[in-house]
Amino acid sequence: MEGGPKKATPGKATILALGKAFPHQLVMQDFLVDEYFKNTNCNNPVLKEKLVRLCNTTTVKTRYVVMSEEILKKYPELATEGLPTVSQRLEICNKAVTHMAIEASRACIKNWGRPISDITHLVYVSSSEARLPGGDLHLAKGLGLRPETQRVMLYFMGCSGGVAGLRVAKDIAENNPGSRVLLATSETTIIGFRPPNADRPYDLVGVALFGDGAGAVIVGSDPDPAIERPLFELHTAIQHFLPETENIIDGRLTEEGIRLKLARELPQIIEDNVEGFCSKLMGTVGYSEKEYNRLFWAVHPGGPAILNRVEKRLDLSSKKLGASRRALADYGNASSNTIFYVLEYLLEERLKMKEEKEEPEWGLILAFGPGVTFEGILARSLAV
User: Fold this and answer.
1) What is the spatial order of strands in the sheet that 181-187 belongs to?
2) What does the pLDDT look like over 96-141, one tens digit per residue?
């Protein structure tokens, strides 16, 4: 199945360009603990030591965040336990996610090479804002999209939102010949920022792991060979939720922002179910369930434990999740955006692999989100 011409299958959706953007505040993991406890006026040595351990285990090295000393000076209540701050948080988040989404989309459109007026549809994904009209309209206005651009908005899908957005964009592209779909994701952790609390030790996982940013892709079928350079063909997309697991990833919008709790069982649940899920996708092009190492892998890096469990269950070689681990180290878990950072790194790695003549043609794009929901796409590499 390797080799063969790198031409898109007629009528199948393809990723035509990628783009990304970040806030200006860069956080070095080595300095995060002291800054976080300073900014939240907390002197609990037990919690501080716990956060140090978590930071050492996440494998994250750097992240970008919207939160800054300037924001905390303007809104000191964000670092105070028990105050109703959802209005202040949304005031910051709504503006920030739109700004980042515009920047990522512009970068993507520039890489695509066609005029912005050729965009026919917009899919917007975020778990970091809430307003009417939604972020899709604010993004369309900020970019100057045509008023007749058809919009779809996916809210609060968490870490699986990026791949869910690809699935929706694929359906739109394949059912609307000639269409070009802009998919944009944008996230910020300010919606859930809070001071450390001994009654909520799981909050520290988010402090050690999550980052902010935006991602964008252009999706369309039947690429114009004179202008467009398809990167991946989106062959088959599926979604599956696991019954009775809706409390494993539990997020609640409260007067103090979003409260997110991740159950310890999450990595084990993913490990127990990932093999059957992948086999469904692989079977559509004739791969057996034991041929995992013949594929390339773009897995949302929810955390090192999840990547380790997937690698172990599928018996993947150590390099197969290299793009996911690299994205986690450089950007943290940036929720729905992260899969696009993984795809960018995967393209870089595949250029090196091409020189070594070890380039798989087929691969899987995977993410796991609230539900617990599995999102997966069987993809074919078209990049040259």
Assistant:
1) 150-155, 121-126, 181-187, 213-221, 13-21, 232-241, 373-381, 362-369, 296-299
2) 999 999 999 999 999 999 999 999 999 999 999 999 999 999 999 9
Query: Which run of H or of E encompasses 355?
Result: helix 338-355
d(CA 10, CA 125): 27
Q: Among 121, 112, 128, 86, which residue's Cα sits nearest to residue 214?
A: 128
Phi-psi group of 149: left, alpha or beta (phi > 0 → left; psi -120 to 50 → alpha; rest → beta): beta
| For residues 196-206, average pLDDT | 88
Q: Out of 55, 108, 159, 278, pick the active-site residue.
A: 159
Q: Respond yes or no: is residue 93 known to be catalytic.
A: no
CA separation for the pair 270, 276 (Å, rounded): 11
- Token pair, residue 98, equals 């739109």
> Which three-class secondary structure state does DSSP give residue 49?
helix
Q: What single DSSP character describes residue 203?
A: H
The whole-number average pLDDT for the span 178-205 is 93
What pLDDT score was predicted for residue 356? 60
Q: What is the mean pLDDT of the chain?
A: 94
Of 159, 217, 163, 213, residue with least CA distance to 330: 213
**Bridge partners, residue 333, by sequence:** 210
